[in-house]
Hints:
Structural class: alpha/beta
CATH class of the domain at 147-248 and 251-287: Alpha Beta
Largest sheet: 9 strands, mixed
Mean pLDDT: 96
Low-confidence stretches: none
Number of strands: 21
Shape: globular
Strand content: 15-25%
CATH superfamily of the domain at 147-248 and 251-287: Metal-dependent hydrolases
Helix content: 25-40%
Oligomer: single chain
Amino acid sequence: xxxxxxxxxxxxxxxxxxxxxxxxxxxxxxxxxxxxxxxxxxxxxxxxxxxxxxxxxxxxxxxxxxxxxxxxxxxxxxxxxxxxxxxxxxxxxxxxxxxxxxxxxxxxxxxxxxxxxxxxxxxxxxxxxxxxxxxxxxxxxxxxxxxxxxxxxxxxxxxxxxxxxxxxxxxxxxxxxxxxxxxxxxxxxxxxxxxxxxxxxxxxxxxxxxxxxxxxxxxxxxxxxxxxxxxxxxxxxxxxxxxxxxxxxxxxxxxxxxxxxxxxxxxxxxxxxxxxxxxxxxxxxxxxxxxxxxxxxxxxxxxxxxxxxxxxxxxxxxxxxxxxxxxxxxxxxxxxxxxxxxxxxxxxxxxxxxxxxxxxxxxxxxxxxxxxxxxxxxxxxxxxxxxxxxxxxxxxxxxxxxxxxxxxxxxxxxxxxxxxxxxxxxxxxxxxxxxxxxxxxxxxxxxxxxxxxxxxxxxxxxxxxxxxxxxxxxxxxxxxxxxxxxxxxxxxxxxxxxxxxxxxxxxxxxxxxxxxxxxxxxxxxxxx
Length: 528
């Protein structure tokens, strides 16, 4: 007696190999059988003729560290078919904490999860943070990375200088503890202070600790525009010198003058692979990125933390200096949008581009951005169109690429419904299947599913995830390849996709006939 039998599905098993029609049985949270099961007894039979049964999607790049505590139903991800999220990317993360860093890291994290300041923040170690997710329960599985930002802040606050040997030792100590607690690796965010203040030697020293544990190094590299190739070279160097597997975050080339450089960048990674440096990357299927509004402020002004940055912006002389430096970097303000601000006086600007905001405020767009950072106490985020569609297609199709949303588990209700966020939070995986498989033929269905499941499982070392094979965890998604549609738009992003019938996590049905069942069967996966 099986728990569930999926009947006559087109099975795309996550390997990249050809699909086939088969029945698939689930029992006690595992895939129990793949084959002809017409006469098998089961508690439930799910008709699958004309539908695709795939492994649950693994979102290898997310920022759901705090949203999963705010709302454990993981609404915007589970409804895409995502059954596992990798958190702790881009060097960011809510642990480990010290008494000196807790409040600053809490404030820095607000733009990633509205309402997270109300969580209590009663953890300190990385293990205690993971325990909070486990105690809260969650709808999908969680693969944790520890961010470089909390590691560095624990050793030297927000100082803008190379780390001293003793400060590196402190970071290594916190990293070892986090890896012992179950982190799969470390991520760096080399455009985000204070991670951006680290030199290559510091990062190699930390990556060598990851090597001791057989752990991974994920990196938001030091530049994705004019310095893209140097930044990719640094990530490869760190992987090569420390002998660790490298994942380049949301790989892209920003700014029209840099479009096309992704071909040279991926060639660097191909050559590294020939030298046995394991380098991959993730990519989202959009031409816009998103992040904190303070990205318009030069990084040196962020030394000392948020309060110090706001003081510099409030000082006329320093602000003039910052403005001159920021203005030297060309920015298409009509393609630069405010997506969230924690200030009722300026909420009406959410969703507007900065040329319009500047006109309303009777300011230059850059001055308007500085003004909103100050008025919101740096609680604001933006979205910018800066990528080439040709580059996106190239990166998606490249053998080293995987799909990652760079988004979070949001919901169209509650505190996570605030603002006009990037539609990738709701639509990344259906968009790949709709636009890049069905409409444009950039990928075959089998290739796309592999990049969203098996390839990610192999990179992460998840032996029980990512494939439809007997004996593996029953993380599954059933969808109609002819109707699956990403409904989230830049103007109206809080929209669930359509065409996804059922999502199963560890043998439990979490999405049924397109609706969330309320079940929370996800697990925090700890390294080894």
